[in-house]
Fold:
Amino acid sequence: MSEESGRKNLRMPDDNEVFAVVTQHNGGNHVQLRCMDGKERMGRIPGRMKYRVWINEGDVVLVEPWDWQDEKGTIEWRYSDQDADQLRREGHIE
Structure:
């Protein structure tokens, strides 16, 4: 992190990933997502994240949509509040 700008190099989406905002927690390891490509998806929290990273409503996440079922996807990354603010300032998310 450079001291003068306060900007961090954040993990950006790969070709098959998209930014999303968690709109609802459906219990278990499923959440409702509003993706930046304009679609609503059911997101699955994988086991490697389930107990290490708490995902709440309003969190900004990185989702990999399933290629066989586009209305669902796997959450790959969760951004902290500061990182999400930086993404909003830079215009990556609404």
